[in-house]
Amino acid sequence: MKFSKGSKLTAALAGLALMTGLAMAQQPAFFRIGTGGTAGTYYPVGGLIANAISANGDKGVPGLVATAVASNGSVANVNAIQSGSLESGFSQSDVAYWAYTGTGLYEGKPKVEDLRIIATLYPETIHLVAAKSANIKSVKDLKGKRVALDEPGSGTLVDARIVLAAYGLTEKDITPEYLKPGPAGDRLRDGALDAFFFVGGYPTGAISELASSSGIELVPITGPEVDQLLAKYQFFAKDKVPADTYKGVGATETISVNAQWLTSTKQPDQLVYDIVKVLWNDASRASLDAGHAKGKLITLPNATKGLGIPLHPGAERFYKEAGVLK
């Protein structure tokens, strides 16, 4: 059978289109995860997750190349997701809530209404650290005391104000100082401060050193005031610092915000579904358990706790199928 020049050209173009389509289908999908500083917890955990979900033989999401990107943390990651310069990122759940609702740190700024959650990862505990000599047994006992609330612009400062308000206190009822936990710990050791707030995973080095050198009290954040606070602010959750996490300190009831993995409604539902499905498989579980101390706390039952803002539809679909979400 003979073919005309036109037929040959048509066949060649069809073949070229097919090859181009196959090449495009085989192009990898890139999915960046904004984390934090390289010396913190977000960065190594982000690396573990990126490795787990990236395509690797028969493991991971087919065609996906995920990378952990160092950043300035929660606010920077939310802003990068909003601008499209990152596909996803880690954030404290309170920062995510403020961004979504235009409150707290985002007061007066446009709401980031397309922000969505892939998973809650692990708790970041609210520590209320007090000097042993200060006789502070409850949040109410802070009245009249010298208390560091962290620097303006920090998430800790906003959280500290919420906790104080739950117990009927404001900054007018204390002598407030606006110091980071390091300098606050030095002042507490020197007797120039009675207590300070810190939000972060336990144990944290600065508090461990303070407990060993000077002795501290961890003040419980509990009671009916907390029940009302949790009902009002869904990004908080109950938490407990186990006994002897810090030298000489017994088990202490408190609350926490969560480290969360966020994305945007711009990300395809099927892609996020596939990512979440791989995140919670046995291979990823083994990697998280072995890779970092916080990895053991990243569990499927905790993935939908303390959300504060909506789940991404792809993630929500998986959690419903897995039975952890109604």
UniProtKB/TrEMBL annotation:
Q: Which InterPro entries match?
A: TRAP_TAXI
Q: Which UniProt keywords apply?
A: Signal
Pfam family of this protein, just one? NMT1_3
The record's section on NCBIfam families has: TRAP_TAXI
Signal sequence, start to end: 1-25
CDD domains, from UniProt? PBP2_TAXI_TRAP
Q: What is this protein called?
A: TAXI family TRAP transporter solute-binding subunit
